[in-house]
Amino acid sequence: MLVDACIDQVMADSRLTYGLxxxxxxxxxxxxxxxxEHLPExxxxxxxLNTAWQVYYRRAKVLRKCVQLWCYRGRPEAAIQLAxxxxxxxxxxxxxxxxxVEVMSALMRAxxxxxxxxxxxxxxxxxxxxxxxxxxxxx
Length: 139
What we know:
Blueprint: H1 2-12, H2 22-38, H3 46-72, H4 76-85, H5 100-108, H6 112-122, E1 127-128, E2 137-138
Antiparallel strand pairs: 1-2
Helix pairs in contact: 1-2, 2-3, 2-5, 3-4, 3-5, 3-6
């Protein structure tokens, strides 16, 4: 049930792929759907699943923005700064790479989201989120 709600959210959010060309938009959506499909197998509790999904969804938006800045806005320095703030800078390709798919693939290989999920869940101030909610709520 959580998987369906997550996938519905991905398909309903046109902002998720805003500013991307079709190849990298497709890659991003497939990556996020794959993350949603593997959530039930993760062994996390329900509240942890919601938090994990929120982290993945946010990560997808960061990936989109990095590719958008790097490839389509001509602002690789801004993409590097954003990637650095998210712990992804070391995974960016060299500056000669201009293809959005290559930049997106390099960032996705990082799999930093797994670490972030663990860090988020370990915090005492847990936040819960349900896919049908539009905003995160602090419990």
